[in-house]
Amino acid sequence: MNRKSKTKNKKTKRALVCGAGGFIGHHLVNRLRKEGFWVRGVDLKYPEFSKTSAHQFILGDLRDQKLCQRILDIPFDEVYQLAADMGGAGYIFSGEHDADVMHNSATINLNIAHYGTRVGIKKLFYSSSACIYPEYNQLDENNPKCSEESAYPAAPDSEYGWEKLFSERLFMAYRRNYGLNTKIARFHNIFGPEGTWRGGKEKAPAAVCRKVAEVKNAGRIELWGDGKQTRSFLYIDECLDGVRKLMNSKDFHGPANIGSDEMVNINQLAQIVIDLSGKKLTISHIKGPLGVRGRNSDNKLIYRKLKWKPKIPLKDGLEKTYKWISEQVDRTVRLIQ
């Protein structure tokens, strides 16, 4: 290697993405590669739908302290801690996975904070969740309150939310006591192509897209609850824009919402997808886990601090997502036949 190549390599920023086999982590690796980072990805599994673009991908369990010591062997310029035990409403709100969700995610975060501090990483991003917000502020589907300061007095509606809130405080404590430069974002329902779309851990947009894609014209899809519960959904590209703005900020650490403020109810979400499909379908409502009655991202703080706000309408993001999931459904049907 010549001297010029060595100089270039010394200037290349290095990033570690924990959870790089997951939906957001996989897209984040691609984004960082495009920005010129050398990227190491770590996860229990490879990305499901396309090959990782990470320069180095390590299969391993981040609950294992020895693995964390091995992957945190250099002072990375940026570490992204996205790894968690998570899933959609059917997984989080059933109550059957509470102990595992809390233990697994907390263990990962404790390991990353501890060993990341020891090796001297320069900057760490932690992906928290809108699930940390108190249930008492989200009982009215038309007027939910999810501003950052409303997180306390704390009363999340799930153990997943409680663990996320604990880990926020963990990383903030490491910033105060050990100087770890942490950045924290609270994600609000991120969706897009190459996300989980079946199996019980999929989120609402993917589940609705799958149901619409699987049923024939003049058929019927089922939704949990009365469909009047409200949410906002953020397309993956917009999420990454917000994450990168937060990481590049000098004095703002969060926690900050990264989500859309285009609130819809689940019936409206389903109707948008049905319209995109060109099918004429009916909706029936059944019992199922629901979460809070209403939730919408409050973006005032992040806009004031970073001038970030989403630009892609929900319909446009759903159009891309439905097209991709419809292709997956068709491929699955062909394989079965």
UniProtKB/TrEMBL annotation:
**Is rRNA processing given among the entry's keywords?**
no
Q: Which domain of life is it from?
A: Bacteria
> Entry's Pfam families?
Epimerase (PF01370)
Which residues does the UniProt record annotate as the domain NAD-dependent epimerase/dehydratase? 15-252
What InterPro entries does this protein's entry cite? Epimerase_deHydtase (IPR001509), NAD(P)-bd_dom_sf (IPR036291)
Q: Which UniProt keywords apply?
A: NAD
What name is this protein filed under? Answer: NAD-dependent dehydratase
